Amino acid sequence: MSEKKDPSVWQGFKTFLMRGNVVDLAVAVVIGAAFTNIVNAVVKGIINPLVGAIGTKNLDHYSSCLSSTCEGEQGIRILWGSVLGATLSFVITAAVVYFLMVLPMSKYLARAEARRKEKEGTHEVIEVTELEVLKEIRDALVAQRGSGHNRQ
Question: What backbone torsions phi and psi does residue 35 show, to the nearest 5 degrees?
């Protein structure tokens, strides 16, 4: 009995893996991981030194104490520097992704769509022109038949 179930489960798994969207997702993850390395290099190599020129490269050391003493592990410490660092890293990453990937791709797709519409518009003009010519031919034939019919 289990022999019949195993091939169907295996077949289902193979079907799942061979779907286009699973392969696309795997490619996206790999490209995303490679792109993360690029973004991290930009942040560490360019952005952090610029921020370091203004203040410090490492924001993790900034914190505030809510209790009267915050020595060692005692007291309630709010690590707002870590939150600020993570937020800046997110904003910088989002900006790099937007300006280096999304914006150029959007412009490219808009140009491609405009070219496609331009081709369709030209095609429609030709069709309308042909339709007009056919109507004129029809009208001329009707007029010719009408005038020839009246003579007889």
Answer: -70, -35
Gap between the Cα atoms of 23 and 10, Å rounded: 18
Q: Which residues contact 40 (CB under 8 A, 6 or more apart)?
A: none
What average pLDDT does the segment 81-87 reach? 81
- Round the CA-based radius of gyration of the chain to a whole number and report it: 34
For the chain, give the secondary structure using H, E and C.
Answer: CHHHHHHHHHHHHHHHHHCHHHHHHHHHHHHHHHHHHHHHHHHHHHHHHHHHHHCCCCHHHCCEECCCCCCCCCCCEECHHHHHHHHHHHHHHHHHHHHHHHHHHHHHHHHHHHHHHHHHHHHHHHHHHHHHHHHHHHHHHHHHHHHHHHHC
- What number is the average pLDDT over the span 50-60? 73
- pLDDT tens sequence across 16-31: 777 767 777 877 888 8
